[in-house]
Write a structure and sequence with these properties.
This protein starts with a strand and ends in a 5-residue tail after the last helix. By secondary structure, it is α/β, with parallel strands linked by helices. The chain has a six-stranded parallel sheet, sandwiched between helices. A six-stranded parallel sheet has the order 14-13-12-15-16-17, with helices on both faces. It has three domains: 120 residues, 3-Layer(aba) Sandwich (Rossmann fold), CATH 3.40.50.720; 229 residues, Alpha-Beta Plaits; 95 residues, 3-Layer(aba) Sandwich (Rossmann fold), CATH 3.40.50. Helix 1 packs across helix 13, helix 6 packs across helix 8 and helix 6 crosses helix 13. The chain is built from 14 helices and 22 strands.
């Protein structure tokens, strides 16, 4: 598959690195040579100094024969123009990064498709949605819904008080109301079998139904954690604005921002009930005066990963049960987990999940690259005659490192075990180690 990526910034570079290990024909272009110089020798991809809005440069980069053209430069207008040009040249699919929420509305999809832009991605909006999902339930690390929440995946950090630790998974019983699909332990992601055990400190990923969330809370030993009612956000970024707009009305939100002009900018964009505070969110005296000691969630969204991690650590010392840090430096994500930062937002991984989905030949509704675990989750739509329909799950010989967590059939959630028979038109949720989704396509086509 030939993929041309325009823009060697954070998102474009991360995506190129991710895809270069999957035997894809990757070409990364940027107008600044210094952004490309360190990539050629270290990764299996080609680079070219080129303008994404030059017809000649796009032709030279192979956009006319691209299966997927991705424009992720910092400039929304250039991304849209380059996608239109690539489409006219012959690119099969195009995707543009945008900053305008209006463009992403469903009613505008057909309009942009007519222009030659097949898909749009707004990383800040996606990050805000993850923050809102993360604050819904104070005791989870990651949360993802399928079929309007009928089936949910959640990542939970288990402690010494959890009921499910230090015992083989098979002893937990059969016909459970949940499926343990993965365990993150000491930087290793484990797709568990029946003989595997869960230990204190593990990050455990469960697949369950919304009605059984209370069961997960009990067995994970999280009954004593409060629900989120008061939230403080440090940093008045565009993510903060979108999060403020998406948070439910019953949440009391304060945004702390150092820059006074930015504070004025924020007041024009967030709901009227949101309190804007001009100050340094790292100042303990300010935090105390703003009620950090009775705040359930603290979100750090400055442009510094280090500042965000340290601010969340400070918030934890004040007793905040839920902390969320924007960590854009990929190398710091593991450190954030070791320091027990509760929830990490990374725009590069969020964007990569959505872009990766467009690469797949199978019918895939959603793809999510998990922040802490080296794993992906995908929702496959099963086609008539697909390999997964030819026997029960335990007879399918799924590759090592992949497991089916659940499925949606006729809008009903079903947890999957070895005796489950998958049927055409089912929506199947697959959990697998990073980079395996492409290998699983043959089971669903």
């Amino acid at each position: 598959m030939r993929i041309v990526i325009a823009g060697a910034g954070e998102v474009g570079t991360h995506l190129a690195k991710l895809l270069s290990g999957e035997d894809q024909d990757i070409i990364l272009i940027d107008e600044k040579e210094d952004r490309l110089s360190s990539l050629d020798s270290n990764f299996d991809l080609l680079t070219a100094v080129a303008s994404p809005t030059s017809i000649k440069d796009l032709k030279d980069a192979g956009a006319a024969k691209a299966d997927l053209f991705v424009a992720v430069t910092p400039d929304e207008s250039r991304n849209l123009i380059s996608c239109q040009l690539a489409h006219k040249l012959g690119a099969r699919k195009t995707l543009a990064r945008v900053d305008n929420y209006e463009y992403t509305l469903p009613e505008n999809k057909e309009f942009f498709t007519s222009l030659g832009v097949n898909s749009l991605i707004y990383p800040e909006l996606l990050a805000a949605k993850e923050i809102v999902a993360g604050t819904k339930i104070s005791w989870i690390r990651q949360w993802w819904e399928f079929a309007d929440g009928a089936l949910v995946m959640m990542g939970v950090k288990v402690r010494e008080n959890a009921e499910i630790i230090n015992t083989p998974i098979y002893t937990l019983g059969t016909n459970l109301s949940y499926h343990i699909v993965a365990i993150m332990r000491d930087n290793e992601t484990i797709i568990p079998g029946g003989s595997d055990m869960i230990y204190p400190g593990d990050l455990v990923y469960f697949m369950t139904m919304k009605k059984d969330i209370s069961t997960i809370r009990k067995i994970a030993g999280k009954q004593d954690l409060p629900e989120v009612r008061d939230v403080i956000i440090m940093g008045g970024s565009r993510i903060a604005v979108r999060a403020a707009q998406l948070l439910p009305d019953n949440v009391n939100l304060k945004i702390i921002e150092q820059d006074l002009d930015r504070c004025h900018w924020l007041t024009e964009r967030v709901p009227s009930g949101v309190m804007i505070i001009n100050g340094d969110g790292r100042d303990p005296n300010l935090l105390i005066s703003e009620g950090i000691d009775h705040t359930e969630a603290f979100v750090a969204l400055t442009d510094s990963s280090e500042t965000n991690i340290l601010a969340c650590l400070a918030a934890k010392r004040f007793g905040v049960s839920k902390t969320i840090a924007e960590v854009e430096n990929i190398d710091y994500i593991t450190m954030a987990e070791k320091l027990d930062i509760g929830f990490v937002i990374n725009k590069k991984k969020i964007a990569a999940s959505h872009i990766y989905q467009m690469m797949l030949d199978a019918d895939v509704s959603n793809v999510k690259c998990l922040t802490f675990a080296s794993a992906d989750v995908a929702e496959f739509n099963v086609k008539e005659g697909a390999r997964v329909t030819r026997g029960i799950v335990k007879e399918l010989s799924l590759p090592h490192g992949a497991t089916i967590g659940g499925l949606i059939r006729n809008n009903q959630a079903i947890l999957v075990n070895g005796d489950t028979q998958i049927e055409p038109n089912d929506h199947v949720v697959v959990f697998c180690l990073e980079g395996m989704i492409k290998k699983l396509e043959k089971y669903f086509n």
